[in-house]
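User: Could you check the structure of this?
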Amino acid sequence: MFIDPASTHLHTARMGQQFLEFLESLVSSDIPAVLQMHGKVLQGDRHLPVQKFISAVKTRLMELGLDQSLRTHPTSIYQPVQITQQQQQQQDRYHHHQAGTNNHHLGIGGSSSSGISKNAAASGNGNSHYGAGNMATQEKTVETILTSFQKSGLIPKSLLEDAIFRPLWFKKTFLPALLQWQGNSDLLLARDQLMAALKERKKISDQVYNDYLKQQQQQQIK
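Assistant: Sure, the predicted structure tokens are below.
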């Protein structure tokens, strides 16, 4: 129905509008690959007022740290198209801007699948984790996560989602910040437990976890 207008079942403008409103209502809950598929198919459609829907899709994909160019289809519904390094830089700037206006990290006050990312100072090209002006923000992000984990004993849902949908941020920005964190001593045990929980959920490798344990042992010796 998207490819050939002659075969569409949306016979009136009102039906087309209702159809798009229905799709828009699913943007926050649809899996990323489906969003990318719908967005690519509808982008540039001349027969439907798709601008609002496309904008919502791109915003959602950007929040999730995924490709929002809509140039290619995902290879499967379980493998959304990932972003390039250049897109990562653009999205990091977006998340840094959003951090000042959106306090939805950890799902507080609403649904946010990538709130933690928004409050983590962006990593730029993924190599410079502690650039000037970023350390305080990253330390605050880690402290917020550890405090939540200490209270609930559960890995924050948004962090688990970031590990899946923003693997570059998770590996290149969050983990280094967590490992080098030197904040509230009352949360050190929570950090040990969070690392163990991440390993159990297979979000970090055995090697990363073992290196962390060795690092802790060396610090205790000192």
